[in-house]
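Please go through the protein record below and explain what the tokens say about the fold. Record follows.
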Amino acid sequence: TAPEAAFALSIPDEEVQASLDALAGAGELARGQFLVADQPQYMKAADRLRLKSGRDNVFDYETVEDYRLSKGERFDSIEDFFRFYVTTGSELDVYARVPSFRLDEWQRMRADGRILLGRFARGRVRFMLAADAARYAYFRTDQTQPGDRDLLARIEASGPISMRELAAATGGDKERIKEALMRLDRSMLVVRAFGEREDWGSENLYQAYHPVEQTEDPTDGIVREAVRAFGPVPAAAMRFLVSIPEDAIPAAVQRVGAVQILVGPGQVPMYLMPDELPQLNSPAAPPTEVRILSPFDPDLGSKWAELAARYGDKWVYPVMKGSAVVGAMEIWEVSGCIEVRALDLDRPELLPEALGALDRFMGFYRMKGTDVIRIREVLSTDAAQLEEATAQAMRDGGYTFVNGFWAKGTFIPRVMTWAEALSMIFDHQRVGKTARYATVQELVKARGYLRSDQELAARCAERTTMRKQMDRGTLIKTAGVPVFVTYTSQRMAGCYRLIKERPLTEDEGIMMRLIEARQPVSMKEIINRAPFSPAKARELISALMRISAIGQDGDSYYLAVRPTPGGRDRALREVALAHFRDFGMFSAEDFAQFMELHMAPARRLLSDLEQEGLLAKGFLLEGDPTLRWMLREEAGRPVEPFTGMFLLNTQDNLCYYLRHYIKQETGGLRCAIFSGTEIIGSFKGKLEPKGARVDDFQGSDQARQFLQDTAQSFGVAVSKSETPEDEDWDASEFYLKTNPGL
């Protein structure tokens, strides 16, 4: 009774009563009239269960959960984690338990095939060591249909390939290929190969899977490992952990010597290894540190029903304190940062601990080059409307309120309006009448390239054309970065080639050697000497132009582009900085598109340039949550408002850069007339020194007059036409124009 406990402990009755009631409410103690007495009595919940059942193998759920939690807390290496748990659904689960975890080591193990990713555990996509994957594949069942093996042969011949590439290579129906690929996947005949990254934004790459043949049935070993890692584990849950036939599990459990215990008031049977019983009877104190777990974490096996009841089908990362779920966070990897769309906790006082857990959680993403986190909602309240106590807790945690959310990490506090941002961009572009380059040579030296006469007219005071510049022999024409027809120097073309470098196909190699041996060489001579049909020869020339392996001189003769000394990393750095000097700022997505890179290498490049002190990042646009990078030397420089007028043609990389804004303002990708930072007119067509065509003009009288004045200054007349623009392009230019994708 409470008085007996108070007497034994020499603690006041009221304090003991409060503690006993709290422990009873938490389920650790049972309260009732167990013996004849006039006061409530208390005993351990597990002892009460054993008395009721008349058995000594009965345990309460909390004891079982605390013991299970203590089993797989820490490992010395990635391999040790897999030796215990065998499988995992996320790198985060390994990071949380291996203090020495390094993402580059994990990626090497994936690239080397030491860690595989496939549907090894009852159809669920899981990571697994190759040796263990082979044991699980012993139980694979063939779910393929006639014709699926032909697709498998194509995968085997091509190496790692995406579903999109398979559809293009086979010419088959995308849905049918998807279904066939899923059957191959569920049959464990393919696994997911490692690309440059593995997250929700990456495309699955499939490769054929040939496991090492097993000389004996691995059933008992697999069951023993599952019981050891996850026990006490309900018999019903075993079928979700291993891929062996369900009817074979009970006998295997008996053969490996697992013992049965009964858990909770319902006396649910669970299994664990016999040498674990002493620890279960005297469990150590569970860890009380607040943790954020991935949705796949092995500690959540018994929490799925609770999480589904509390959060439904939301994509949440549970917040745990000991073995209890005390909240959840909706976390997404977006636009160069980690976004927490909602941070929910059972008790507000847990917020500082949850923010500390979030800092530890971010250690994994810092390895990926992402060190900024933003939070949109805290304790069911919009970030902009937090009570002062909650806001202070955020500030104490190192967070800053910016652009309507709370953010933490390495970023500058600068925020610009859209008009200020455009003024900065136009200043970099030198499109103001008094800011233009004096000569083409000065322009190309600063920007590295020119895309068209339309770009030239908007930025250069010298009245000339790209044809005249080509005749001087200082520039060559090839595909730039981004991949549009570009006039540039041999040096910058060599950078473009290094950035796009890939192994040539056998036919491309033949064509490349022909051009190198006879350069400069005309299209006619190439077609006459190449061992291909004229159509095939043109196709190969277009492919080589697209990767900047070849270019054209002023006579439209082809020549090989020499890679610039210094290697690919130096070329990436040089072109990236040229684009930042040219445009002022980029988001990670826009930068990746401009540089023709996947997101992972694009972010690494941005991170490297930031570490060198050349770039700075921040939420630079007012009201916009997107993280953007700019030149660090300009991070604090005030922006002079742009007040000039200029015409932006569609064959201009600035139009490509601003394409979303132009479409939003004009209803499509059209030539735009800017007055200051506002679009006051737009049309379809072009206006350049060689000629003008204006269709569907929309805008003010001021814009129309500016259009007429610009045409007059070029000495051309404005005409209308219903036919598309038809410049005199050769095959390579036509290919690049009609295939501008990244």
